[in-house]
Amino acid sequence: MYRVKEIFYTLQGEGSHVGRPSVFCRFTSCNLWTGREADRHRAICRFCDTDFVGTDGPGGGRFATAEDLASAVAKTWQGRPHPRSKPYVVCTGGEPLLQLDQAAVDAFHSKGFEVAIETNGTRPAPAGVDWICVSPKAGTNLILTKGDDLKLVFPQPMAEPKRFEHLAFTRFLLQPMDGPDLAVNTRAAIEYCLEHPQWELSVQTHKNLGIR
Ligand SMILES: C[S@@+](CC[C@H](N)C(=O)[O-])C[C@H]1O[C@@H](n2cnc3c(N)ncnc32)[C@H](O)[C@@H]1O
Ligand SMILES: Nc1nc2[nH]cc(C(=O)O)c2c(=O)[nH]1
Ligand code: SF4
Ligand SMILES: [Mg+2]
């Protein structure tokens, strides 16, 4: 059984695939926060910008099998077939690696999808995921230490960029922490990238574009 908050079609807003048409499959639940506002102050991850509680969002629900889940994702894709671009699903949450398993990855592949994940990196990934974006959180034990994008929300005291820059990722991105201090955080992230060019800026473009 897979529990999913919402499934929707939009453009990838962040990271190296920014602008890419994508189905987002947002799994319910996270191991670093209950998702309840009342618990935010005592959560391990306190800056989350996402509602991942329940299965009541657009396209959300409980899917009994991997085939059912992949069918719902395939039905949500709206792109026309083209020989040079595959349909693309971004598994996120909540924490997708609490639920995404080999059967789900295989089912997405069998529907012709490339499979990406956005993860906090505290759980192992099933084999065959095509694109791994890890976003480490202060105070957690990072076990996914290789992948494609290492996308660090910045600033996080106790999770400074230096701690991650030796890991086996293709790109190292700083994403300004959204919230009341977004403007200051953006300025600080720009300054950091300018001084440490291993790091590049990731802007959450969907928030400015007014898309999901
Ligand atoms: C909601 S999380 C879900 C996936 C996974 N749990 C994770 O943390 O990577 C999706 C992305 O949004 C980022 N994010 C969450 N809250 C944010 C905030 N306030 N400002 C900037 N990025 C944020 C996360 O770091 C992650 O890269
Ligand atoms: N457009 C858009 N791009 C995204 N990239 C990562 C997201 C996420 O919440 O994981 C996200 C999201 O919620 N919307
Ligand atoms: S780990 Fe990801 S989903 Fe969980 S609370 Fe943090 S940002 Fe939100
Ligand atoms: Mg988001």
UniProtKB/TrEMBL annotation:
<feature type="binding site">
    <location>
        <begin position="47"/>
        <end position="49"/>
    </location>
    <ligand>
        <name>S-adenosyl-L-methionine</name>
    </ligand>
</feature>
<dbReference type="InterPro" id="IPR030977">
    <property type="entry name" value="QueE_Cx14CxxC"/>
</dbReference>
<comment type="function">
    <text>Catalyzes the complex heterocyclic radical-mediated conversion of 6-carboxy-5,6,7,8-tetrahydropterin (CPH4) to 7-carboxy-7-deazaguanine (CDG), a step common to the biosynthetic pathways of all 7-deazapurine-containing compounds.</text>
</comment>
<keyword id="KW-0460">Magnesium</keyword>
<keyword id="KW-0671">Queuosine biosynthesis</keyword>
<dbReference type="Pfam" id="PF04055">
    <property type="entry name" value="Radical_SAM"/>
</dbReference>
<feature type="binding site">
    <location>
        <position position="45"/>
    </location>
    <ligand>
        <name>[4Fe-4S] cluster</name>
    </ligand>
</feature>
<dbReference type="InterPro" id="IPR024924">
    <property type="entry name" value="7-CO-7-deazaguanine_synth-like"/>
</dbReference>
<feature type="domain" description="Radical SAM core">
    <location>
        <begin position="17"/>
        <end position="212"/>
    </location>
</feature>
<dbReference type="InterPro" id="IPR013785">
    <property type="entry name" value="Aldolase_TIM"/>
</dbReference>
<dbReference type="InterPro" id="IPR058240">
    <property type="entry name" value="rSAM_sf"/>
</dbReference>
<feature type="binding site">
    <location>
        <begin position="175"/>
        <end position="178"/>
    </location>
    <ligand>
        <name>S-adenosyl-L-methionine</name>
    </ligand>
</feature>
<feature type="binding site">
    <location>
        <begin position="11"/>
        <end position="13"/>
    </location>
    <ligand>
        <name>substrate</name>
    </ligand>
</feature>
<dbReference type="GO" id="GO:0016829">
    <property type="term" value="F:lyase activity"/>
</dbReference>
<feature type="binding site">
    <location>
        <position position="30"/>
    </location>
    <ligand>
        <name>[4Fe-4S] cluster</name>
    </ligand>
</feature>
<feature type="binding site">
    <location>
        <position position="94"/>
    </location>
    <ligand>
        <name>S-adenosyl-L-methionine</name>
    </ligand>
</feature>
<feature type="binding site">
    <location>
        <position position="26"/>
    </location>
    <ligand>
        <name>substrate</name>
    </ligand>
</feature>
<keyword id="KW-0456">Lyase</keyword>
<protein>
    <recommendedName>
        <fullName>7-carboxy-7-deazaguanine synthase</fullName>
        <ecNumber>4.3.99.3</ecNumber>
    </recommendedName>
</protein>
<keyword id="KW-0479">Metal-binding</keyword>
<comment type="similarity">
    <text>Belongs to the radical SAM superfamily. 7-carboxy-7-deazaguanine synthase family.</text>
</comment>
<keyword id="KW-0411">Iron-sulfur</keyword>
<feature type="binding site">
    <location>
        <position position="92"/>
    </location>
    <ligand>
        <name>substrate</name>
    </ligand>
</feature>
<dbReference type="InterPro" id="IPR007197">
    <property type="entry name" value="rSAM"/>
</dbReference>
<feature type="binding site">
    <location>
        <position position="50"/>
    </location>
    <ligand>
        <name>Mg(2+)</name>
    </ligand>
</feature>
<feature type="binding site">
    <location>
        <begin position="135"/>
        <end position="137"/>
    </location>
    <ligand>
        <name>S-adenosyl-L-methionine</name>
    </ligand>
</feature>
<comment type="subunit">
    <text>Homodimer.</text>
</comment>
<keyword id="KW-0408">Iron</keyword>
<keyword id="KW-0949">S-adenosyl-L-methionine</keyword>
<feature type="binding site">
    <location>
        <position position="48"/>
    </location>
    <ligand>
        <name>[4Fe-4S] cluster</name>
    </ligand>
</feature>
<keyword id="KW-0004">4Fe-4S</keyword>
<comment type="pathway">
    <text>Purine metabolism; 7-cyano-7-deazaguanine biosynthesis.</text>
</comment>
